[in-house]
């Protein structure tokens, strides 16, 4: 088992509450219990080998919001992925009446993977302060503005943690 809770050093500004460190098994249970989970995949996933992990999550029934140019890695893989700008997505997620990317209703858990931490942490700050949506960061870096986050991980530990999470869904 990969321990994803040890290194939670904060590299950007922090607020009144920081993300709880989370283990892959707990993250998998959280995703499994969510009624409407959404995976938000960033463009960094293309260069870091994370696209296969996103596809595996998509094949487990998690809808995917492809931001940046990450959509090009998801095409032709039979997953429920839609392209959206991350700033628009954050704005829509703050709207209680928004019906989601597929028109089926709002999301109760938003999962983040493959983003630049200084960029997505600001999106997470908005969600933390203006919504009741739970957020989970399964990126390689600790994202303190999420509700729960993996700690700062070496690449190989991150990949092993994602494999553990996916195998427990």
What tags apply to this protein structure?
single chain, about 170 residues, alpha/beta, Rossmann fold, seven-stranded parallel β-sheet, globular
Notes on the structure:
The protein is of the alpha/beta class and 169 residues long. The chain has a single domain, classed as 3-Layer(aba) Sandwich (Rossmann fold), CATH 3.40.50. Helix content is 37%, strand content 15%. It is built from seven helices and seven strands; from the N terminus they run E-H-E-H-H-E-H-E-H-E-H-E-E-H. It has a seven-stranded parallel beta sheet, with helices on both faces. Helix 4 links the parallel strand 3 (63-66) and strand 4 (81-83). Helix 1 packs across helix 7 and helix 5 (86-93) packs parallel to helix 6. The radius of gyration is 14 Å and the shape is globular. The mean pLDDT is 92.
Summed up:
With 169 residues, the chain is α/β, with parallel strands linked by helices. 37% of the residues lie in helices and 15% in strands. The mean pLDDT is 92.
């Amino acid at each position: 088992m990969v321990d994803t809770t040890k290194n939670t050093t904060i590299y950007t500004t922090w607020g009144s509450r920081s993300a709880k460190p989370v283990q892959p098994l707990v993250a998998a249970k959280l995703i499994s219990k969510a009624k409407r989970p959404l995976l938000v995949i960033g463009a960094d996933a293309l260069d870091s080998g994370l696209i296969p992990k996103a596809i595996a999550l998509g094949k487990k029934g998690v809808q995917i919001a492809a931001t940046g140019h990450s959509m090009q890695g998801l095409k032709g893989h039979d997953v429920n992925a839609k392209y959206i700008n991350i700033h628009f997505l954050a704005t829509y997620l703050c709207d209680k009446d928004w019906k989601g990317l597929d028109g089926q209703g709002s999301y109760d858990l938003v999962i983040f993977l493959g983003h630049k931490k200084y960029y997505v942490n600001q999106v997470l700050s908005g969600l933390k302060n203006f919504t009741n949506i739970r957020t989970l960061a399964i990126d390689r870096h600790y994202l303190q503005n999420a509700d729960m986050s993996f700690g700062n991980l070496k690449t190989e530990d991150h990949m092993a943690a994602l494999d553990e999470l996916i195998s427990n869904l």
